[in-house]
Amino acid sequence: PDEDCIICMEKLSAASGYSDVTDSKAIGPLAVGRLTKCSHAFHLLCLLAMYCNGNKDGSLQCPSCKTIYGEKTGTQPQGKMEVLRFQMSLPGHEDCGTILIVYNIPHGIQGPEHPNPGKPFTARGFPRQCYLPDNAQGRKVLELLKVAWKRRLIFTVGTSSTTGETDTVVWNEIHHKTEMDRNVTGHGYPDPNYLQNVLAELAAQGVTEDCLEQQ
């Protein structure tokens, strides 16, 4: 009774703060549900409002602990992901070659899942080249990035944090190394924590080793 719903910030014992904006004849304003994996509780109307405000992709992410239910997909525009390999090694990974990922997304028109449907979007700086060490962990990250690409999670349409341009293709919370031989900007090597960090970022988007076993 004393617990708050962290979506609407009302007590779970009181009516949902979204009772007046979410139209549902099946769910009452006092109905409360508990998520099965993480056991966090919310008003059902609040969960419905949160879902309707997202991608409506059949997935739900717990707002408290970020556990994902279902398969999360993003709003990445259509494009192409290519993978190449070469012998030169990356700083900090001198014992192996290099994996080169090339992403290419053209300019286009925003869909219903984007901020301004029907308006054009720009795609600056493509093709974008990114680098991974060609070792066991680097290859695992590559396979998970392929899953993230298929689920449209690597890029999105939004506002560029570097230029302030709106309606443009931007990175979406999964960091990539875009420089091979220096790490002045944080986008290059050496970086001993990078592979572990990107695995955690992929997991936060619901992309884990379990996804590889399901393929």
From TrEMBL:
PROSITE patterns: ZF_RING_2. One of its GO terms (molecular function) is ubiquitin protein ligase activity. Its EC number is 2.3.2.27. Signal peptide: none annotated. The keyword Protein biosynthesis does not apply. The keyword Transferase applies. GO terms for biological process: Notch signaling pathway; protein ubiquitination. Keywords: Cytoplasm, Metal-binding, Notch signaling pathway, Repeat, Transferase, Zinc, Zinc-finger. InterPro entries: Deltex_C, Deltex_C_sf, Deltex_fam, Znf_C3HC4_RING-type, Znf_RING, Znf_RING/FYVE/PHD. Its main location: cytoplasm. It holds the Pfam family zf-C3HC4. Belongs to the Deltex family. This is E3 ubiquitin-protein ligase. It comes from Macaca mulatta (Rhesus macaque).
